[in-house]
From TrEMBL:
Gene3D superfamilies in the cross-refs: Ribosomal protein L33
UniProt-listed PANTHER family: 54S RIBOSOMAL PROTEIN L39, MITOCHONDRIAL, LARGE RIBOSOMAL SUBUNIT PROTEIN BL33M
Gene Ontology biological process terms in this record: translation
GO MF term list: structural constituent of ribosome
The keyword Cell cycle is assigned to this record: no
GO cellular component assignments: cytoplasm; large ribosomal subunit
Protein name: 50S ribosomal protein L33, chloroplastic
Membership in a protein family: Belongs to the bacterial ribosomal protein bL33 family.
UniProt-listed SUPFAM superfamilies: Zn-binding ribosomal proteins
Signal peptide: none
Organism, scientific name: Cucumis melo
InterPro entries reported in the protein's UniProt record: Ribosomal_bL33 (IPR001705), Ribosomal_bL33_sf (IPR038584), Ribosomal_zn-bd (IPR011332)
């Protein structure tokens, strides 16, 4: 058994009376289940750049998902006070 919701026109300057409209069944308002494969693939992902000096210091950067090779940057490591090589590692 579906419930019916009565619909009423709003009062306007041209229509001083509220005229009832035919009711709508609640089945019209229920959302359909999502189809498989509707989700978009993310364009970027977060990666962790770990210091090659072994200090445990890291940077977090965004990387396009289309790039497959591992990224390497020469960046500043404040724990050894110099620029060192940072290599890509997965986020934990």
């Amino acid at each position: 058994t579906l419930k019916t919701i009565p619909r009423i026109l709003p009062i306007s300057s041209t229509n001083s009376l509220r005229l009832p409209l035919p009711p709508i069944s609640c089945a019209a308002f229920t959302p359909s289940p999502p189809e498989m494969g509707d989700k978009k693939k993310k364009a970027t992902m977060f990666i962790r750049l770990v210091s090659a000096a072994g200090t445990g210091f890291f940077y977090v950067k965004r990387k396009p998902t289309k790039i497959t090779e591992k990224l390497e940057f020469r960046k500043y490591d404040p724990r050894v006070n110099r620029h060192v090589l940072f290599t890509e590692a997965k986020m934990k």
